[in-house]
Predict the structure.
Amino acid sequence: MLDKIKKYSWLIDSLMEAKWSTKKEVVHNFLNAKKKYVPKEKTNAKVGDILKCALCPNMCRFDCPVARVGNSEALTPAAKSRIAYLMEMGEIDFSGEFVDLMYKCAGCDASREWCPFDFSVEDLLVGVREDIVDKGLAPKALLELKDKLEKNHQIYNQSLIPPDTEAEKARILYFMGCTARAKVPDVVNTNIKLLEKSGLDFATIPDEWCCGAPLSTLGFKDSFYKFAEHNSRLINKSKCRTLVCDCPECAYVFRELYPKIGFRLKAEILPMNQFLLRLVEENKIKPAGLQGEFVYHDPCALSRKLNVCSAPRELLKSIPGLELKETYFSHRETRCCGMGGMLGITNPEISSKIGESRISELKEVCSNIVTACPTCELAFKNANKDKKVKVYDISEVLLKSLEK
Amino acid sequence: MNTPEKGYGVVYRPKEKLSEKKRKTVFKRLCDIVGPENFSDKEIDKIIYSRDFWPIALRWMLERKVPALPDCVVWPENTKQISDILKLANEESIPVVPFGEASGVLGGMIPVKGGILVDLKRMNKILKINDKDLTVTAQPGLNLMELERLLNKEGYTMGHSPQSIYCSSLGGNLATRAAGQFSTKYGKIDDMLISLEAVLPQGEVIRSKTVPKSSTGPRIDKMMLGSEGTLGIITEATLKIWPYPEKKELLSYAFEGMESGLECIRKILRRGIFPAVIRLYDEKETAFRFYQTGKAKDKCLLVLVLQGDKELVELETKVSQDVCRKHEGIECGEGPVIHWFETRFNVKEASDFAPREIIFDTIEVSVTWDKSIELYNSMISAMENVNGVIVAFAHASHFYPQGVCFYFIFGGTPVKGAEPNEFYTSVWDAAMRSCLDAGGSISHHHGIGLMRARWLGEELGPSFEILKKIKKSLDPKNIMNPGKMGL
C-alpha cells in the first residue's frame, strides 16, 4: 500500500495543486467514466481488458506468429481486440468475418511476454469465443468437433494406443494425451519404455479423456467442465502422487485451468521432460551416449505457460556426446510451431505457414530438431516437406542414448 | 460508404463517393495489379485500416466511432506494383494512403478522403547486410523490432530504438523522420539513411546511389524523409549499421533543477562525448518514473548509457562521470537505468486513463541551447494554465552539441461540460503557440499528420509555400495522402 502511495505521489501531488473544479471532475471521471465503456449486461469476455488491449499501439504485434505470416493488419493482436470490442459493445454483429477473426490465434502466449498488463491475447479471445458459443453462433465445424469430442472423448479419429488398467494402484500416472496417442504413438511407446527401464511403479489411465484444452480454447466451457470433472475424478481417486504429461498443454490445463473451475488435482503435475530429468539425476536412467548435434525447440506451452526452459536442456546435456545447439529465438522468446490454440484445425493454412517459418529457423542451426511437445513434433513433421531434417521428441533422444 | 445501419459512426466521410461502376472497374484493375490475394474491400479490413494511435482516434474508439474508411486495401509485393497502383490512382483521381504499422500519434495515416489504402507489410524483407560497408538494405514494411533482432542475431545494431520499435515499420519511421532513444550516439533515422528507392505520385521510380556522400546537386531522395506519404511511397532503403556494442555502461545522477542538468549534458557533448542514451527528467517526471530512487526525490534525474567499443566506453564513462560530479550531480548508480530499460516499453497511459476520461498525450519539440530553459518553462506553464490540466512535465531525451529535444507529457480532464477533444485541442494549441514564441521547432520526431497541420505554415514560413508548389508539381491531382500536413 505504501509503495502504491509512493508510486502515485506525482499524481496525488498534482491533484492537490489543481483547481477544485478539476479535482472534482477528475475524481468523478476516475470512478464513473469507465462504466460507459463496457457492456451493461454480463459477458464471458473481459471487455474492460479487451478495451485496454484495443487502446494499445499493438506493442506485441512483432512477435505474434499469426500476424507475422499473415501480413495483414486485422491479424495483429490489438486489431483482434478492436473488433472484439466493437462486437461486445453491439456496434457490429457477431457474424461472418468478425467471428472468424476471433479464432485466428495460435495461443502461444508471446503477447504476454511484451504486454505491460500481462495479458495473453488468447485469454482475451477465449472469453469472446464463450460469448459466441452462448449466442449459439459458433462455427459449424467447431460444433462438430465438440460433438465428436463429447462422443469419443478424444480429439482424433485414429485408433489409439490402449491404456493400461493398473492405474488405481500406481503412484505414478502417465497421461498420454490425444495428440501423442493418435498422431505420434512412437513417443508414447518410448515414454513407456523409459518408465519401465526406471523400474518405477507406473500406469496409464484406463479411461483417459482428452484434457479438455481444445474445448476450453474454443469457448465450450460447459463441455470443458465435464472433461475436467471426469479426469480429475479418475486421478484423484487413484493412489497417484505424480501425474506425468507428455504434452505440456495438458500439464498446463491440469495445473492452471482445472483449479479455476474448481478441480484441483491432488497429484504433483509434471511435464515428461522434467520427470525424466529427475530420473536421470536419481540415476534411475543412465544415458550412455549419443553423438551428434541437436537443436532444441522450446514449445510455447512449456517455456512460456509453464516456465520450463532449463529442464529439457539439462536432460539433453546429460547425454554424453550430444551437442546441444540453440536458435536465436529460444527459451521464453521461442517462436510458435503454429499448431497451438487449435489453429491447425480452425485455420490450417496460417498454421502451416507458421510451422514452415519456424522449421526454417531451426534448420539454419542443424538438421536434428528436438522438442518436448507432441503437437510441435507433429507441426514440424508436417512442415518438413523436403525431409531435410529429422524431428525427435526429447524422450526419443534419451532412449536412443540408452540403447547405444 | 458501406456502413451498416446499426453500428459505428464514421467521422470523416469523403464528399465524393466512388460510383458503383467506377468502384468495380478500379477494384478489378487493382486485383490485376496485385493479385486477388493482395486485395480486400471487406468491412473488417476497412475498419481496421481506419486509424492510427492518435489520441483523438482513441477517443473515437471509446465512442464507438471510426475515423474514416478506405474504399479498399491492397498489399503490394514489389515496386512495380506500387508504381502501377499510383498510375491507376492518378488516372482515376482516387486518393492513396500508404500504411506501415499505424503507430503514429498525429492522425497521419487516417484515410480522411477514403481511397486506396496501400499496406506495405508484404514488402518486409532484409535484402542485404553488407559487413564491409556496414549497411543494411531493407524493404519499408519491415517491423523495426524484427529488423533490429535480425541485425542483433548477425552481430550488428542499427541503434534505432524508438518507443514504438515493437509496433512501427521502417517505411513509417523514414516517412516521419523518427528518432530512437539511442539517438545521441547513433543519430536519427534521417542520419542513418544512405540511399533509397521511392515511387513518386505519378508512378515514376527514383533511386539514389549508395555512396557515403556526394556533391551532385540537391538530394531529391531526401525529400521523401518526413513527407508522411504526401510525396510518394518509399519502397527500399539502405541504412547505416554498427557492430553490436561490446560494452555498456549505465550511469545516473540527480540534479537540482533542469537548468543544472541541461548544463551538465551540454558540457559532456562539448567534450566530444556522445552517450547513446541521455535522458534528463524534470522533478515531476522523476517522481512519476523513479519514485523508488530516494536520492532523486524532488530532483531531476539524468540517465546515461554509454556503449560501443570497450576502451572508448571506459574513457567516455570516466569523462562523463567527471563532468557530472563537477556539476554537482548526485550519483544514483545503475538502478534507475536498469529500471528505465525494464519499463521503457510500458505504454499503458492511454489504456489505463482514456476510459476514465483522463487524457494523456506527448508533445516533442526541439530548440537550441540558448533558448532551451526558457522554452521548457514557458511550455510547461502554457499547458498548466489550460483549464482541466492536472499535470504537465517533461524530459529532454535527444541531444546535439547545438541543442536539445524536449518531450512534454500532459494529462488532464475536460471540465465544465467541455468535450474531451475540445480540451485536448486547447492544450495542444497552448503548447504549440508557446513553442513557436520561444523559438522552438514544433516537432522533433513525431511529425505533422492532421494534428499539427495548421501550425506547419507558421513553422516553415515562406518555405511552406515552396513545399506546396513541390507537392503540386509532383502530385497535381493531390492523390497522395490528401489532407495531411496542410497539403
User: Anything to note?
Assistant: Chain B touches chain A through 65 residues (CB under 8 Å). Residues 1-5 of chain B have pLDDT under 50 and may be disordered. Chain B has 17 helices and 20 strands.
